[in-house]
Amino acid sequence: MKHAQHLLNLPRLAAFVAICEEGSLSRASQRLGIAQPALSTMIKKIEDDLGVSVLTRHARGSVPTPAGRVLLKSAYEMLGIAEATLEEIGTTSADPEGEVAIGLPAATSMVLAVPLIKHLRKKLPKVSLRVVETFSGYLWSWLQDGNLDVAVSFDRVSIPEIVCLPLCREDLFLIGKTKLLEDAPDHIDPDNLYKFPLILPSRIHGIRGKAEAFASSGKGLDIRMEIDASTHLVKLIASGEGFGLLAKCAVTDELVQKTVRAIPLKPSLSRQVSLSVRRIKMQNPAVTRVVEEIQLVSADLIRTGKWPTSDAS
After folding, report:
1. What is the four-CA torsion angle of 130, 164, 310, 194, rounded to 10 degrees?
2. pTM flag (> 0.85)
3. Could you tell me which residue ranges the HTH lysR-type domain spans (predicted)?
């Protein structure tokens, strides 16, 4: 194996990452503006230096080999360090600067968005925030595509390009208009869930799969409609158009106003809430501080009971 300095060629590592993310040489070529033969040469030099293949080529494109997956994880870290170094050199201020894009699931946003934004504006005045709110399935895809730096995710684990930092666990409940649940049982099990017509998001989102798995040992689900718009979903549930399977944080105001009721599921159904960060951004000073502050604000909301959770992780 050649000396380490040959292996730390950043343009080659960036080319390798692009091919892995795009899944093909041609798409990576378009993304980077580098001709395919030049990309092939860069990958060949990596493989010659390492003495192993890092990509498997097939008719549909390219995927990393086992050795390539190891390299991919390190490549993200090395490119992240390089990016962070350039940003630190570019500023003499002790306060981090730059834009950080944060994704919040609609349910989590109900309890986290306002206190978090106020906190970050006070603590990190030179950081420009871009906050996106939508369902978690979309956020994960945008995080993978590099359109977000940080996002709250549900039931995800770390992958080469994304690091998942656990925040807490949340229980899911059957949520419905209070009047419609006056005679409901104290808990909902798989055998009686079918009695409640549900309004659920589409299958791209984790909660749908959880609902189907929960009901699989009983009589299934009665899905009245699919809707990928959280605000409207909650309004429809509160108006009596159907029922939902949600964490309490999604309906905090409605629960206080007693317009909806939350009934536990038995066996309990919970999800892991994590803070997911693009690995390449882990060394970025602004992103690092934002992550730390999100963890602090989340812990405070959980400790004070403003964010209802199963347990702190």
Report:
1. 90
2. no
3. 8-65
Predicted local distance difference test score (pLDDT) of residue 1: 44
Whether residue 90 is predicted with pLDDT greater than 70 in this model: the reply is no
Domain boundary among 89, 120, 145: 89
CB 221 within 8 A of CB 212: yes
- In terms of domains, do 161 and 276 share one? yes
Angstrom distance (rounded) from CA 63 to CA 20: 6
pLDDT in the model for residue 278: 94
Once rounded to an integer, what is the mean pLDDT over residues 45-56?
89
Instruction: Specify the CATH number for the domain of residue 198.
Output: 3.40.190.290
Same domain, 203 and 290: no
Looking at beta carbons, which pairs linking 214-217 to residues 24 or more positions away fall under 8 Å?
214/190, 214/265, 214/269, 215/190, 216/190, 217/190
Question: Which tokens go with 140?
Answer: 């994960």
159 and 205: one domain?
no
Q: Indicate if the pLDDT at residue 75 is higher than 60.
A: yes
**Which pLDDT belongs to residue 92?**
44
193 CB-contact burial (10 Å; exposed 0-12 / middle 13-18 / buried 19+): buried
Instruction: Check whether residue 293 and residue 180 sit in a common domain.
Output: no
Residue 5 has pLDDT above 60, yes or no: no
Instruction: From 242, 88, 89, select the one nearest 177 (Cα to Cα).
Output: 242
Please state, in angstroms and rounded to a whole number, the distance separating the CA atoms of residues 38 and 51.
20
Structural domain count, the chain: 3
Residue 241 sits in which domain range?
170-270
Mean pLDDT of 77-93: 69
**Residues 40-61, mean pLDDT to the nearest whole number:** 87
Strands 223-226 and 244-247: unpaired
d(CA 220, CA 21): 38
Q: Tell whether omega for the bond before 267 is within 30 degrees of 0, i.e. cis.
A: yes
Say if residue 143 is in the same domain as residue 19.
Answer: no
Q: Are 12 and 75 in contact (CB under 8 A)?
A: no
